[in-house]
Amino acid sequence: MTTTSVPSRRETPTTTASATTAAATPAEGSAPTPAVIQAAGLTKRYGDLVAVDSLSLTIGEGDIVAILGPNGAGKSTTIEMLLGLRTPTHGSIRVFGADPNAKATRARVGAMLQESHAPETLTVAEAVDLVRHYYPYALGVEDILRRADLLEKRDNRVGQLSGGQQQRLNFALAIAGDPDLLFLDEPTAALDVAARHLFWEQVRGLAAQGKTILFSTHNLAEADALADRVVVINHGRVVADGTPAEIKATVAARTVRLVTDLNAAALAALPGVRHVELAAGESREDAHPMLVIQTSTPEALLARLFGAGHRVEELTVSDTDLETAFIHLVGAAADPSDPTESAS
Predict the structure, then answer these.
(1) What range does the domain containing 301 cover?
(2) At CA 100, angle to CA 98 and CA 106, rounded to 5?
(3) What pTM value is reported for the model?
(4) What is the gyration radius of the CA atoms in the chain, in angstroms?
């Protein structure tokens, strides 16, 4: 495949590619915002199996984008194609305006995968120094170790690291080349609460420098709190693409959980109610099971129930979270906590 020269981040590009989605619209007369990633009509087939189906995606500079999808949705295959690790059956990918495998493109991309495969006999500092030498513009070893909170482990052998420390090493290796585009695959797996906070602080700092972040996660609360944009993939297609607030707006704004003597069908017929279901672990055989109600007007709903003298117990009202919207978009069978993708 013919490749195109990619301007270095130390150079001023003479032309830029216009982002067609997600990136901010430039002011009149100003240069268009460059698209870091442009994927059009991506399809990946394995025999009769279609893992990714005519998927198109444009991601702009400085975006923090969460890629979500259930098991087998095609998100891992999509990310691997964007990285140049898999070749699409059909469609095109441009990263910084060039092929993902172009040498100049690879010099600007970092990836934090589930396993680093760093030699276990190397020390942490040696592993970081080895990887940084593959890049034309690399951060210093001390800077990398500080950002990954590994300064105290610099002389430890890779094989001696705990799961959380190994995950921090994976991050260190991903940022060693000072990348402008960073892919993070389940980045906070095995990290404790304090380490997660430190990790996302570093990621926000990278985004503030104009770097683009793509991450997949089973932790939908993290995606909700940290992503500027959420892309939900199901059956190899993008089924939702927007800010976390826009994704959550696909379902009702509030979730009401309660036990009542009014049945689910009657509740579903009330004004403002969009969906009623049994709470997790509840059975239809129960006389009065806990119900989960999606509604845009919880106050009016509760006023009707109290006004009619209905039993209302164990009541909670909360904003709809991203997990609720995710399940609504991809189906109740989806398991966002399962990071594996057997079909993709």
Answers:
(1) 251-330
(2) 100
(3) 0.76
(4) 23
